[in-house]
Amino acid sequence: QLQLVESGGGLVQAGESLRLSCAASGSIFSINAMGWYRQAPGKQRELVASISSGSSTNYSDSVKGRFTISRDSSKNTMGLQMNNLKPEDSAVYFCHAIAGVYGSSSYRVYWGQGTQVTVSS
Q: How confident is the model at residue 104 (pLDDT cuts 50, 70, 90)?
């Protein structure tokens, strides 16, 4: 199996920065795409940013130019640098990966437990 653990959430004021990290562990054969999703109270989970195994990136329009996603495939880690945070960025942020593990013949989706980001105005 594969476990994803997020860290780096917290409470900040509008305009400040935070960096989220996600570490994958377990019997990892290969990690394909990784990404960050977020879910605010009463709202659906939405994609924030994604990064492919070839490091191609994709961002939601709401964070483009403010957030930067990165990954270190050698360490099975991923980061999200969030700058100029806004109150509407407040949500639980989830790490997401599409990966294959030893003993399994197919890739599947994995989720972390989430980390809270709160931005005060």
A: confident
Q: Burial-class residue 101 by CB neighbours within 10 Å (0-12, 13-18, 19+).
A: middle
Query: Which residues are CB-neighbours of 51 under 8 A, at least 6 positions away?
Result: 33, 34, 35, 57, 58, 69, 70, 71, 78
- In tens, the pLDDT along 73-93 reads 999 999 999 999 999 999 999
DSSP states of 10-37: EEEETT--EEEEEEEEESEEEEEEEEEE
Tens of pLDDT along 4-60? 999 999 999 999 999 999 999 998 889 999 999 999 999 999 999 999 999 999 999
Q: Where are the beta strands (DSSP E) in 45-90?
A: 46-51, 57-59, 67-72, 77-82
Sign of the Cα pseudo-torsion (104, 108, 111, 112, in order): positive
Q: DSSP assignment, residue 83? A: -
Question: Please, which residues have CB within 8 angstroms of residue 42's CB and are 6 or more apart in sequence?
Answer: none
